[in-house]
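Forum: Protein Structure Q&A
Topic: Joint prediction for protein chains with partners

I've read a bunch of threads here and the consensus seems to be that you should model interacting components together rather than docking separate models afterwards. I'd like to see that in practice. Below is the full input, 231 residues plus whatever partners are listed. Could one of the regulars post the assembled result?
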Amino acid sequence: AQSVTQLGSHVSVSEGALVLLRCNYSSSVPPYLFWYVQYPNQGLQLLLKYTSAATLVKGINGFEAEFKKSETSFHLTKPSAHMSDAAEYFCAVSVGSYNTDKLIFGTGTRLQVFP
Amino acid sequence: DAGITQSPRHKVTETGTPVTLRCHQTENHRYMYWYRQDPGHGLRLIHYSYGVKDTDKGEVSDGYSVSRSKTEDFLLTLESATSSQTSVYFCAIKQGTGTAGANVLTFGAGSRLTVL
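Posted by a regular:
Agreed with the consensus. Here's the joint model:
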């Protein structure tokens, strides 16, 4: 079954430091992968998605993720953290086909940014 | 803006009582989903719908039922609420008509349910 695993439930970085949030997927077929962000007391917003067009995917707010088939990974990065990046981040994989299409989420990583 | 409204946004109820959460969309999207969010578990799919009267179970469907009698409304019902169903519930719709799996989910603001 297709699934995603997020390594690290909490990540802390200093403002201006590199952000790296890890996601590994399990899939027997080429996956569609997503990163979502959730700010406090809000719903989830799409950061970026991988749909096999390009292995390096750029998203909003300076985030990007690279699909690495050999490592079954889709890690999220940002070169320089900002205080406003503090949020919870979810990796997700799309499973199923036409009528059964749905997203399965990882358990989330909470990012803290210190001044 | 996908025009998703969840109601109620907050509800406190007692064990054993029935509860219905409503998700309303204004843009005629075919696919709608109900997730629950709990610390340490992320979001888990409860039920989803791929059309009027067409629904299916997700990962954690026990204790929940859904109905979709018209395109714009997707109802989630807890027939007899239990404390383990205390959670934040999110409705989502799938936008786009492209390749299955490549479309994006847009989420509502959530409904916080507390079962005492």
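Chain B touches chain A through 31 residues (CB under 8 Å).
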